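For reproducibility, we list the full input for the flavin-adenine dinucleotide complex.
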Amino acid sequence: MTDILVIGSGPAGYTAAIYGSRAGRSVKLIAGGQPGGQLTITSLVENYPGFADPVSGPELTDQMRRQCEKVGTEIIYDTIKSVDFSRRPFVCTGESGAFYESRTVVIATGANAKWLGVPGEEKYRGTGVSACATCDGFFFRNKTVAVIGGGNSAVEEAIYLTNFAEKVILIHRRDQLRAEKIMRDRLSENPKIEIMWNKRVAEISGDGGKVTELLLADVEDGSETVLRIDGVFVAVGHRPATSVFEGVIEIDENGYIVTKGVCTSTEGVFAAGDVCDPRYRQAIVSAAQGCMAAMDADKFLSANL
Ligand code: FAD
Ligand code: NAP
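The corresponding predicted structure, in tokenized form, follows.
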């Protein structure tokens, strides 16, 4: 039995655990399949306060983990596969088979990469199709790669890939990028990057072993183009990791947990970070919400037990 069970080990989960532990509560944190969360697949983080020199995503989350351990959080490397919030204490079951009983729960399960769902994408995943330039960019030294998307992730991936690739083609379905101005400026200043506007990927094809080309459809006139490439990086956003909570707590039509502040539809269950935040999706916001969730959990424990 624990006071606060934190599900997820991104900035939201780690911050909730730090605040919960420092409030004198017993805290267990279930790390999930991606310890450290989304920041572990980014290179440099330049907008998290406290680091005048950019810090790498893995280093930043590793510091958070160590801070949790230092203040007494028990970190458990398991993934929650089902939850029972119909009775108290709440019970969460791990893929390991372990049951975790807790008086309160903070859900901080974040989000996962979205895919395009076009023919060839699944077949070539890992052999030319990727959602992580930091992980796979190295394999495309002196090659031509495409990046799909128009947000900060796509722009960041495209710029990062110029460290390896000879040419990077950013393909966006509109004629305007969603990415912030500072990112757009860096993109346009980079001589290795070309942008193709108003194009959708219709198909990814290859030679059976690796990707060789993309079939692109123009969104305005439907005309098709074949683009020779060696790899494609999909950066079209993320989907909240809420399947475990479906039918248990309120979730909106896009899969995000519905919250008031950080309270979910079940008293004693709180949510923080990208799992409930379709708008900001930033590490600092997730961390702040993690803090709020732990403080509210602490108040709930004081009032109810
Ligand atoms: P996440 O970081 O998504 O972590 C979710 C955690 O939940 C993971 O540890 C996962 O293992 C765990 N989990 C999931 N399901 C389960 C389960 N069933 N059981 C147990 N655990 C589970 N933001 C910035 O502020 N600055 C940046 O420079 C920046 N760069 C980015 C670069 C990229 C490529 C991407 C994809 C995002 C970037 N972001 C950046 C956004 C930022 O990473 C997220 O806003 C932030 O990580 C969200 O934190 P989180 O704690 O809510 O969730
Ligand atoms: P995002 O902002 O949601 O952008 C997704 C992009 O992919 C959009 O341009 C979207 O097009 C496009 N897209 C979505 N579905 C598509 C499809 N099926 N086919 C083709 N294109 C598709 O996601 P993100 O870029 O991953 O960013 C997520 C959050 O993390 C944001 O808040 C962002 O600011 C943050 N982040 C920050 C940094 C940083 O600060 N350095 C870096 C990375 C991410 P439309 O524009 O037409 O909708």
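Residues 47, 116, 148-154, 156, 173-174, 178, 235-238, 281-282 surround NAP (ligand 2) (CB under 6 Å). Residues 23 and 298 are 7 Å apart (CA to CA). Both points were considered when choosing residues for closer inspection.
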